[in-house]
Design brief:
The two termini are 33 Å apart. Strand 4, helix 3 and strand 5 form a beta-alpha-beta unit. This protein has 9 helices and 8 strands. The radius of gyration is 18 Å and the shape is globular. The protein has an 8-stranded mixed β-sheet with strand order 3-2-1-4-5-6-7-8, sandwiched between helices. Bound molecules: NADP nicotinamide-adenine-dinucleotide phosphate. NADP nicotinamide-adenine-dinucleotide phosphate binds next to helix 1.
Amino acid sequence: MSTIVMTGGTSGFGAITAGRLARSKGVRLILGARRPAGGEQLPLDLAELASVRAFAASARERLGGTPVDALLLNAGMILPDVTRRTADGFETTFAVNHLAPYLLARLLLPVLADKAIIVLTTSGTHDPATGASLAPPRHADAELLAHPDRDPGLDHRPRRAGEHAYTAAKLCAVLTARSLAESGDRRLTAVAYDAGQVFGTGLAKDLPFPLRVAWSLLGSPVLRWPLGRLDPHLNSRAAAGNALADLALGLATPPDGHVYAALRRARLTWPQPSERARSDEPARALWEDSARLVRLRD
Ligand SMILES: NC(=O)c1ccc[n+]([C@@H]2O[C@H](COP(=O)([O-])OP(=O)(O)OC[C@H]3O[C@@H](n4cnc5c(N)ncnc54)[C@H](OP(=O)(O)O)[C@@H]3O)[C@@H](O)[C@H]2O)c1
């Protein structure tokens, strides 16, 4: 029996992952969801740290001592600017994509099995070298990302600032995966998973109307096939969801020393993440600053 806890399994490619895991023999799946709907779904709103703590407590209670074999932190979102704040007063894109999953990982660490896997969904946009169209991360300073009004380098064009919040949070996912992998704690495996470009998911739902329409059209199977032949980053929801399920089930594992998994032409590859994601000091600072922001002791 394999026990898996997952966020972001209610739409997009995460729904494909959750569906496959739920159908897999010998797998017990506990899903955190804003609108729980049957099965083992428990309430979780990543925009509220109190909800994260409540979810961790109810998941632990539900498990009753059974260790967790895989923790999939897949939920994420992007906003058109950085004006929204969570219940805790943090910029919402950063809080939902980094602070809340960080807290959840920390709260569930004690119940992870020996050799468990933690997967944090990141994005190739964390790396300026990929030439992605989104504003690349300038830093992974948790304090400034939580309070962008204090960031002296804040781009005052709303959309660019919103993109930066997203790509910087995805850089934080890679740095956090590294910290977890390098902790040596119970021989954990940690992977930062970049699903490539997956059109047609719910990710664009808060973006302006023309972007939502383009996102949805580009996700249609008719366009995806020819585009996918031109661009190796482009993946279908099925490919992205199944690769995440493979990681959860141990059917795909990182080569020694690798934490970054990038899905290219529907195949998992293990390139190096961005230069900044490979630096030790930002990883250490992010771990400690995030702990302080979510009110953990270290
Ligand atoms: N699509 C891409 O091209 C792409 C590329 C690289 C990385 N990613 C990342 O992949 C992940 C999945 O994205 P997707 O494209 O499949 O988008 P999606 O369809 O919007 O899925 C996002 C998931 O996150 C959940 N979520 C969002 N905000 C939440 C909150 N406050 N509390 C709890 N759950 C929340 C959503 O739940 P609801 O059902 O309640 O909305 C949904 O299950 C994200 O982390 C995204 O950043 C996507």
